[in-house]
Amino acid sequence: MVLPTPSDLRAMLRLALPVAAVQLGIMAMGVTDTIMVGHLSPAALAAGALGNLYFFIAGIFGQGTLMALDPVISQAVGARDAEAISRALQRGLVVALALTVFTCATFVPVEWVLRVLDQPPEVIPDAASYVRIAIPGVFPFYAFVVFRQSLQAMHRVAPVLWTVLLANLLNAGLNWVFIYGHLGSPALGVAGSSIATSVSRWAMALAVLSISGRQVWHHLTPWRPETLAIEPLRRMLRLGLPIGVQYLLEYGAFAAAALLMGVLGTTQMAAHQIAINLASFTFMVPLGVSTATAVLVGHAIGAGDEDQARRSAVAGIFIGASFMCASAFVFLVFPGALARSYTGDADVIMLTVMLIPIAGVFQVFDGIQAVAAGVLRGVGDTHAPAVINVVGFWFIGLPVSWVLAFRLGGGAVGMWWGIVVGLAAVALILLGRVRVRLGRTMHRVIIDEAIG
User: Fold this and answer.
1) 411-437: per-residue pLDDT in tens?
2) 322 within a domain of the structure (yes/no)
3) 115: Cβ–Cβ under 8 A, 6 or more apart, which residues?
């Protein structure tokens, strides 16, 4: 394995830090929603969590599919192929529109699905209302992903960063208005949070397009007639669909754990939501490093520099794992203070304090697997991570969680230790796959025949 130089680490940090800041900013919107709804009642917290969970279970597949833009655009940037960048961005919007139709269709039976999954009856109406209100925000959510991934692949992160900052301010203000009932609005509770989020998603899509200026418009106009060609779209989907499946399987495993937690009770689900929200917030950093790694590996492959691709891969894994070790320390030392920042309910706090240190342990494996997947995405290897997710999360992690929680009486704590086992399996297998792929010759991803 080629070791990264200090300049490789600096290059990774220069891109990873602003990308991670973007991820943290996006996650901050969810944290703000959770805190503001959580101060209504534990039931409201659980309903908001369940509605948000359903939205992302349905939407995460499309978001992952659009990650095909990472290798396609980053490798085109490395090869200095401006036309390929334009075609990829335009095709990204076409795919986003199709994914919107598919995703919205899954929102219609939300209440029936939640009842079949035996969720707490007292939270289902508010959770279902949250999901239905979120429908208008699906397309701008996907469009923002297209613009964000394209700009990041072009090393233009500042417009995305400013957009996320403004969206956080807007979302917090709208939450204050709609959740609690201010400025003439009735107090809408959980439904108000969903309204605020949908409006903020439209603002994000329009703002990033406006702030980026010619950096995006230059590639959107003129519209290329070959953008709608079936074969290149098929190749892009062949690259992106496995990423979508990977994202769905990974998020779905955590969602299944949350649904099982709902079977245990409202207090358990509320505590789980707080702990997973904290872990998800810190996870945004290695997720940002993962994106930066995919971009820099893609740039190197596009430029034909395989040694640089290998050094960038190792630099990304090192930085992602190091940060997660530091955040794990915080979770292990300050669980009480973190739990009390979300809720004043004594029962929820007591259980949350038990879950947060376990989250600290699984974070290390979570960070490693995220960046390893980014390496493979930059190379254009998207099928293997999907298979590895099936094995690690669904054949190992969830069965262990179920046995520990229900068969051995471990409850919520047992459920979380099963998550640790699943993440460790995924991380170790992905590292093995990275080692194999970096040892081979790496070629640029072909979308249009003219590229070859």
Assistant:
1) 888 888 998 999 999 999 999 999 999
2) yes
3) 121, 124
**Alpha carbon distances (Å) from 92 to 70, 232, 309, 356:** 11, 12, 25, 38
Measured from the Cβ of residue 38, the count of other Cβ atoms closer than 10 Å reads 24
Q: Which two tokens stand for residue 343?
A: 């809720």
- Greatest Cα pair distance in the chain: 64
The position carrying tokens 């980026």 is 212
CA distance 4 to 22: 25
448 part of a folded domain? no
What pLDDT shows up at residue 449?
Answer: 67
| Structural domain boundaries, residue 133 | 6-442
- CB-based contact 348:275 (threshold 8 Å): no
Closest to 297 (Cα-Cα) out of 415, 400, 380: 380
In 3D space, the residue among 237, 303, 193 whose CA is nearest the CA of residue 61 turns out to be 237
Residue 63 resides in a domain: yes
* Residue 108 included in any domain: yes
Q: Is 118 left (phi over 0), alpha (psi -120 to 50) or beta?
A: left
> Count of residues for the chain?
452
Total tally of structural domains belonging to the chain: 1
